Amino acid sequence: MTVRELAYLRGRGDSADRLESALREAIAVLAGSEACVAVEVVRGVEDPLLFVLCVDWTSVEDHMDFRDSPAMAEYRSHVAGLLAGPPEFAHYRSTAALAGSAARG
Question: 26: closest CA among 92, 90, 91, 71?
Fold first, then answer.
C-alpha cells in the first residue's frame, strides 16, 4: 500500500516565485527515486507563499531510506535559502476517493 507524504513549505516573501521554479527541478529528483510513485507541488491561492509537496511513496520505510540517500541532499540543494523555515510533513494513507462530476463528464 502506498503512502502519501504532505510537506508544507513556506517561501520567503522575496523568493516565493523562485521557490516555485526551484520546486519544479527538485521534484524531478524525487520522481527519479524507485520509491516515488507520483509527485506534485501545489501553491496556495489565498496564501501564495505556501506550497504543498504531495508525494506518493511505496512505503514510509522507503521514504525514510530516500531521506538518508545522496538524492535527498540534491533535492534540498534546489530549495536551499528559499524557505522561510523548515518544512512540516506527515504521512497519510487513503481511506476513500471518488472522481467528481466535472472529471467524469
Answer: 71
CA 45 vs CA 9, 48, 50: distances in Å: 14, 6, 9
Closest CA to 28 of 16, 13, 40: 40
- pTM recorded for the entire structure: 0.91
- pLDDT tens-digit profile of 7-32? 999 999 888 999 999 999 999 999 99
Sheet order of strands, 50-57 included: 36-43, 50-57, 3-10, 88-92
At which residue does the C-alpha cell 516555485 appear? 20
For the segment 83-87, the average pLDDT, to the nearest whole number, is: 95
Residue 8: name the closest of 94, 77, 95, 90 by CA.
90
Which sign, positive or negative, has the C-alpha torsion 94, 97, 102, 105?
positive
